[in-house]
């Protein structure tokens, strides 16, 4: 905690770490989009929803309430949807055809 207090007390160090965190976050999201394509926002939203759902379940347990079957089913369904969206997003990586050079496609008498 002392380290956090020292970082947040100095505005220049705090600004530097915030900049580093934003750049690293952008790089991670960019890599995620590069791999999963247009499915990346949906996967990130699903993971965020799953995190929130788990926090709500933990809060219910702390309050002494029972976890209902609906909570478990909703969590399992969300995990299944995230998994299916990831598979759909990765499909182009599995079906991609190797690129052929233009000279290999032409016959010996044609120019590329």
Assembly classification: single chain
Percent of residues in helices comes to: over 70%
Strand content: under 5%
**Major sheet: size, sense and barrel closure?**
none
- Rg over CA atoms: 24 Å
Q: What is the rounded distance between the termini?
A: 66 Å
Number of strands: 0
Number of helices, counting only DSSP H or I runs of 4 residues or more: 5
Would you tell me the structural class of the helices and strands? mainly alpha
- Pick out the low-confidence regions: none
**Overall geometric form:** flat
Order of helices and strands, N to C?
HHHHH
Description of the molecule:
The protein has 112 residues and is an all-alpha fold. The model has no long low-confidence stretch (mean pLDDT 86). The chain contains five helices and no strands. The longest helix is centred in the last third of the chain and has 27 residues.
Summarize it.
This protein has 112 residues and is mostly helical. Helices cover 79% and strands 0% of the residues.
